[in-house]
Specification:
Elements (H helix, E strand, L loop, with lengths): L12 E3 H8 L3 H13 L3 E4 L4 E4 L1 H12 L3 H16 L2 E8 L2 E8 L15 E3 L4 H8 L3 H10 L13 H14 L2 E4 L6 E9 L5 E10 L8 H19 L5 H4 L11 H4 L2
Antiparallel strand pairs: 1-3, 2-3, 4-5, 4-9, 5-6, 7-8, 8-9
Helix pairs in contact: 4-8, 5-7
Length: 265
Amino acid sequence: MQIIGLFTYEKPVLTFDEIWTHCRFPKSTLYRFLDNLTRRGLLKLNPATKEYRLGASFIRLGQIAQKGVPLLEVCYPTMRRLSAEIGESVYLSVREGGEKVCLSCVEARSAPIKYAPTPGSVAPLHAGASGKVLLAFMPEEELEELVEKGRLASVTPKTITHKDRLKLRLRQIRKNGYDYSEGELVPGTWALAFPILDPGGSAFASLTVAGTLLNPPGPRLKKLVETMKSSVGKIENELWKDEGQEARKRPPRVVRIRDRATAIR
């Protein structure tokens, strides 16, 4: 556990010497420990750089840990309030591999024509705002591997299918703190999505408000961004309130409010 505890969000990759400096085990003993952890999948060694990082077993353990977080229980009251206040559908999504899955959706009641994804529906992460915010706030190494090895399939004519363009968009999303899209996943629809961040700043889920382009947000977008920002912040505080003060310390969420024309560029 002493070795595992050295890996952090700020320092996810370590060399043998960096590990040895902190642990001060005899080098022969440390080599055996690292070899054992690597064979068990808890660490992964890059043969080219001789650097260690946490292995795939921790992804599985993290998924098990997530099962214990009352995500839907915390989010659903906020989703209902937002949908009633905004007059549009609000839905919650999580990542499963290279896809995003809709966990729950509160349909707009007042809109005569509405868009509401079905809970359990699956879509590529790169198509639409709800998936792209999950990508943008993914650990950098994991993001690189997913984008470089994945296939950016075209779901609609507006889906981003070029890797360089997607990377540029993801950088803009990280800068803004949210994403707005039109017709990338379903033609004739718009979506505004925020990531729900874990204590380390990675996307745990995404919260999205969406509607049809027959009733685009237009001048409402600025207020929608502020409303979503506030709601997601409250969700994060509720989700991680038992994590301890140190775990919850992270830079404040930076959200840049942009006009509609710039946001969809």
